[in-house]
Design goal:
mainly alpha; two-stranded antiparallel ribbon; elongated
């Protein structure tokens, strides 16, 4: 079974080589040789197939190089002749390429690239929603979160967090910091360990009223 298709250029080279060999064989057969003798002498006249193909590749390479140089020269002449128009085209292309690159980078970071956590494809975001639209706040109270986890039969564990902005005033100037209040099983859900210290114990995981 062939998993890869041959390149069109290689197929064309083989076709050209077969054509010339067949023409030479026909000429030798017309001169009185048998088909086998004509084929053998034609192969000797042509030499190695790979050597001939490499010579043909060199011809195509030089033709491609010459076409590229000609296109570059034509482009430079056009830029010199209409610099304002050329600058507008180049700027438009640069903006289009930059926008596409930025969009792809965002899609790669948000959708394509996995989260930096073990088995991140198993992480699920769970929210509460008021079907009647009476409450816009989606914050889940800690007692309710614990009820969800206790009644849960689908996930390994459910946890949550709440971000809070504060100020650090121990230095010469106050500095804004963001702290996270986390629910029990927070590190367990993410599958990570603390960089320093230890995880919370079960005795410490209690909601105090």
């Amino acid at each position: 079974m062939r998993f890869f298709k041959r390149r069109p250029a290689e197929t064309q080279l083989d076709s050209e080589l077969r054509y010339h060999i067949e023409r030479l064989i026909e000429e030798k057969v017309a001169a009185g040789l048998t088909r086998d003798q004509a084929h053998r002498e034609a192969m000797l006249d042509f030499g190695g197939r790979e050597q001939i193909k490499e010579d043909l590749r060199d011809v195509h390479r030089f033709a491609t190089l010459e076409n590229t140089i000609a296109n570059l020269r034509s482009g430079i002449r056009l830029i010199r002749k209409s610099p304002s128009f050329s600058a507008a085209v180049i700027l438009t292309l640069a903006l289009g390429i930059g926008a596409n690159t930025a969009v792809f980078s965002a899609i790669d970071a948000i959708l394509l690239r996995p989260l930096p956590f073990p088995e991140s494809d198993e992480l699920i975001l769970v929210r509460q929603h008021d079907l009647q639209g009476r409450v816009s706040n989606i914050f889940v109270a800690p007692p309710r979160l614990e009820d969800w986890n206790r009644l849960n039969t689908t996930f390994q564990a459910i946890s949550g967090w709440y971000l809070n902005d504060g100020s650090e005033t121990s230095g010469a100037l106050p500095e804004k910091i963001t702290t996270a209040l986390v629910a029990p099983r927070f590190l367990q859900v993410w599958g990570v360990s603390p960089v320093l210290g230890r995880d919370f114990t079960r005795e410490e995981e209690h909601w105090r009223t």
